[in-house]
Amino acid sequence: MTSRHRGFVHLLPLAVVIILLAGVCEAKTAKGRPPAKPAHKGIAVRPDAFTERDFQQVRLKYYRKLMGDAYRKFGIRNPAWDEAALGLLEGCEHCIAVPHDWQAYHRLLAAVEPLMTSGCEDPLVCCCVAMALIENGRMPDGEPYLRRAIEGYQNVPYSRAIAWSGPLRLAGLCRSLGGEKLAEVAKWEALSIKWLGQATGEKIFADREQRVLWGELSRALDGQLDPRITQVHEAIQHQPGADPWLANMMAGVFYIDEAWKARGTGFAAWERNISWVVDADGSLAPWLRRAAPAVPLPRTASYGSPAVEGPQRPQTFSLREILVPMSRIELPRGETLDSRQHRCR
């Protein structure tokens, strides 16, 4: 062993002692140190809070009541298609109640194939067959089933809350297929709106289930039914016994939409001068005074989305409270946008 190696060996005990002393000092320091704070605080949740998972169960129960249970109660049943029909309805309940599970739509095809050769005549089952085919890109195959479903809904007492989507889907399909079928779009959208209005008058809604129907409707209002907000509002307002929560929510969307129309488009939509909304003395402009001075609606209606949590008691908001904040929207110099693309929904 060289002298260099012997010197290294003599240093080993000293190194061990230093390491042990460092460990003891660290342990004492840690003992007196306050516990480390978590990186962030969790959101406090009440034990009885109504969560999105709870609402998903409400949706599932709602669609089960209107689909599988309704088919068992008064659907057109036949041993030739009964088992396959119930399997398809159960799959569709899940697809509609649990959003964004796109693989579930693909799995529906296995239940659809036997029904396509069974001669099934039940309108709800036919509508579900059409939905499965259309969602999987087979639009021409789904069209005849949709037409059969809409015709059948006239004779079988399924709730309009589930039937109204049939003509709406057919209207969208006709628009996609184009050609001569475009002439049918208005007819099917009008029928869908009529059935939707009737749905709001049915005494079928358990706790929070109105919000499930509103979820469907608000998506349609943001898309296919955007040009028909007035017709939807009138159908619900004129429906005897319409659910007041749904009626108030739709009223909120309607009046906000009317406010945007009144502001105009292009430059007028974003002009900072709001003299046509509020007079110089701060009072409402004459055209607003001629309109309803106050609209009863839930607070969230001004944003166009249903409140899963929060107060359910309708509150009163004047049109000025809705319109004046809109007048403060500004755009960078030189930009122009259509105000209808920026409704508060």
Description:
This protein is mostly helical and about 350 residues long. Among the domains are: about 50-160, no CATH class; about 245-345, no CATH class. About 60% of the residues lie in helices and about 0% in strands. The chain has 16 helices and 2 strands. The chain has helices at about 5-30, 50-65, 70-75, 80-95, 100-115, 125-135, 140-155, 160-165, 165-175, 185-200, 210-220, 230-235, 245-265, 265-270, 285-290, 320-325; strands at about 295, 315-320. Strands 1-2 form a two-stranded antiparallel sheet. The chain starts with a helix and ends in a 19-residue tail after the last helix. About 30% of the residues are buried. The model is unreliable at about 270-280, about 290-320 and about 325-345 (pLDDT under 50).
In short:
59% of the residues lie in helices and 2% in strands.
- The helix-and-strand class reads mainly alpha
Strand order of the largest sheet: 1-2
> How many whole angstroms does the radius of gyration measure?
31 Å
Low-confidence stretches: 270-280, 290-320, 324-345
* Oligomeric form: single chain
Assign an overall shape: globular
Question: Secondary-structure element order, as H and E?
Answer: HHHHHHHHHHHHHHHEEH
Tell me what portion of residues adopts beta-strand conformation: under 5%
Proportion of helical residues = 55-70%
The total beta strand count reads: 2
End-to-end distance, in Å? 85 Å
Number of helices: 16
Mean pLDDT: 75
Largest sheet: 2 strands, antiparallel
Kindly list the characteristics that best describe this protein.
disordered C terminus; 2 strands; 345 residues; mainly alpha; two-stranded antiparallel sheet
